[in-house]
Design a protein that fits this description.
This protein has helices at 9-21, 26-37, 48-70, 89-99; strands at residues 74-78, 81-86, 106-109. The protein has 127 residues and is of the alpha+beta class. It folds into 2 domains: 8-44; 48-109, no CATH class.
Length: 127
């Protein structure tokens, strides 16, 4: 669930700097702070399939911008935003694996269509 909160500029800047130091997004950092304040031990983790499905949705919604800005390049999407781009998919994969170990990151080449079409013929059953 997403919730919009308002923070004074100085407080937001402190939160942003603290999140950066912990190599977290502002959302991740604020979630951690709230959980700590509420003495909640853990959040029910989302599955890898759910995480990848969210990144696929982000890919699809970002696609018009990606096509205009990164046509032909390989793009990495994590937590709904573009985190890295490269013309060499191997170099991009290496950087992403190093920067986001164990995380579900969507990596795909920006082509003419957001998803490749696959055509399959129906199987024939013989008696």
């Amino acid at each position: 669930m997403s919730t919009l909160i308002s923070l004074p500029n100085q407080l937001y800047e402190r939160v942003r700097q603290s999140a950066h130091k912990k190599q977290q997004t502002v959302d991740e950092y604020l979630t951690e702070l709230v959980l700590t304040a509420l003495n909640v031990d853990e959040i029910v983790p989302i599955t890898e399939d759910e995480a990848l499905a969210k990144e696929a949705q982000a890919w699809e919604s970002l696609y018009p911008m990606l096509k205009e800005k990164y046509a032909g390049q390989h793009v990495a999407i994590y937590q709904g935003r573009v985190v890295d781009v490269d013309t060499d998919p191997l170099l991009l994969h290496r950087r992403i694996r190093k920067k986001y170990p164990g995380k579900q990151v969507w990596i795909s080449q920006v082509k003419e269509q957001p998803f490749s079409e696959i055509f399959m013929r129906s199987p024939r059953l013989e008696r």
